[in-house]
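How it folds:
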Amino acid sequence: MAAYNKQTNDCIVDVRMEVQAVRHEMLSVKKDLSDINEKIGNIELKQHTLSENMKSLENKVGEIENEQYNIRSEFEEVAHMFDKDSAELNEIGKRLEKIEYAEIKNCLRIFGLTDEENEAADKTNQKFVSDVYNVAVPNSPLQDSQVLNIKLVGRFNKNSNRMVLVKFKQYDLKGEIFKARDRLRDSGIRVSNKLTMSQRNKIRDLSQRGIQA
């Protein structure tokens, strides 16, 4: 009987040890499950944060796209206004050039006439008649009404003669003198047309590019 009781007690002890071992394993598993659950919670939190960040990023991208659209629209509007203004400026420039040309088309520039400091207008007129007009149109006396203005241009320089600008009442007389430019050149006189600003700019541009105008 005593031997039976001892065997029973030993079995009880073994069972208790196994129960404790199982409890220990269960506690370990429970701790592992708790750690896993915490990690899952952290992952879910990170996923939520990432989702919020993605939404914020999408909103910012949308704002940038809207801003780009607004900028593009404003640029197109400015470009359209610029094109319109450029066209209007070109039209104004053409009208001004026509006005300028109408003002100078009867003008002739004369180079080579001697001049003096404080030279009187009458003396300049006499030089034009004797050295230019009579050489170019020898058989037709000049009428006062045919010339509107004769003037020296620029400041006096003892080392070079000033240009003389003559404005005729009609283009025909100017053209007749211009046709005689070779004969005038033989006597040391050079004549040329007065140019508009646009024409001068074009000639300057061609000259800078090495093209003879």
